[in-house]
Amino acid sequence: GQPLGASILGPVTNIQTFKRSVLKSFMDKHYHAGNMVIAVAGNVDVAAVLREFEAGVGHMKNKGRSTFVPANFVGGNSHETRPTQQLQLMAQFKAAAVNDKDVWDTKMLGSVLAGGMSSRLFREIREKRGLVYGIGAGHTGYADTGTFSIYAGTGQKEAEILMPVLCDELNKIRTDGPTEQELKRVIASAKVSMARAAGSMDGRMRSIPSQYLTFGKVSTTEERLAEIEKVTPESVKAAANKVFGGTLNFATVGPVSKIESYDKIQARLKL
């Protein structure tokens, strides 16, 4: 198996077998100096901080960085029947890893589609047609791969209409890309969020180890803002074709509905 395709918690039967020795073995394997990054931000005495950490964790051994099984996207669909009024669904595709050159194009694609009340999916599917209770989309990046997920909560009657409309919207952005106005809006929003986080000592402190463990380096706010500025309508269009032209993973939870089959949804996404 592969970790990306499994639940973080695991099955109940597995959890019930845990003993202290199992948890200790896990901590010994992963919680060591090779996987640790210490970060501080603000008006601090760095030498004093280092002395404190040396006294507290200086004895820890460096066992090297943890390795992982590469992700393998195979596609497929799954339905879990539950006696609920709403049908929850998610369509997921393979997407850019955090170090891929098109990672910001993919992130901006998510914002154009579902980044707020001005986004395409919100306006067309929720506001105009009233097909969903809520809808969202976005990119999640990992070291070796990434995912692009589209979530919706809908009713039994609306489910039959939802997927054709959703696929039409995905195909539109694959064909035409975003408008200049749409892209300016989502880039401005991303820059504001990044600048706000940089202005917080807590935000900076959290960003440093995250960047180092993910990218192997720490970039300045200015460098990251410059990366966002490189995104163009054409690069977002290319990202859309790369993502939505790939293998679909589709899952639903709720009542049995007249939602289209997996094969038919896949066929709608073939330009």
In short:
The protein has 271 residues and is α+β, with helices and mostly antiparallel strands. The protein has helices at residues 12-15, 20-30, 46-57, 103-114, 120-128, 156-176, 180-198, 201-215, 221-229, 233-244, 262-268; strands spanning 76-81, 87-95, 132-141, 146-154, 248-254. It contains eleven helices and five strands, in the order αααββααββαααααβα.
Characterize the biggest β-sheet.
5 strands, mixed
Uncertain stretches of 5 or more adjacent residues: none
The ordered H/E elements are: HHHEEHHEEHHHHHEH
CATH top level class name of the largest domain: Alpha Beta
Q: How many β strands by DSSP?
A: 5
Number of domains: 2
- Strand fraction equals 15-25%
Strand order in space, largest sheet: 1-5-2-4-3
Fourth CATH level, the homologous superfamily of the largest domain:
Metalloenzyme, LuxS/M16 peptidase-like
CATH fold-level name of the largest domain:
Cytochrome Bc1 Complex, Chain A, domain 1
- The appropriate CATH architecture of the largest domain is 2-Layer Sandwich
Taking Cα atoms only, what radius of gyration do you get, to the nearest Å? Answer: 22 Å
- Helical element count? 11
Mean pLDDT: 92
What structural category characterises the helix and strand content?
alpha+beta
- Roughly what percent helix? 40-55%
Structure description:
- With about 270 residues, this protein is an alpha+beta fold.
- It folds into two domains: about 5-55, no CATH class; about 75-270, Metalloenzyme, LuxS/M16 peptidase-like (Cytochrome Bc1 Complex, Chain A, domain 1).
- About 50% of the residues lie in helices and about 15% in strands.
- The chain has eleven helices and five strands, in the order H-H-H-E-E-H-H-E-E-H-H-H-H-H-E-H.
- The protein has helices at about 10-15, 20-30, 45-55, 105-115, 120-130, 155-175, 180-200, 200-215, 220-230, 235-245, 260-270; strands at about 75-80, 85-95, 130-140, 145-155, 250-255.
- Strands 1-5-2-4-3 form a five-stranded mixed beta sheet.
- Strand 3 (about 130-140) and strand 4 (about 145-155) form a beta hairpin.
- The longest helix has 21 residues, at about 155-175.
- It is globular.
- It starts with 11 loop residues before the first helix and ends with a helix.
- The model has no long low-confidence stretch (mean pLDDT about 90).
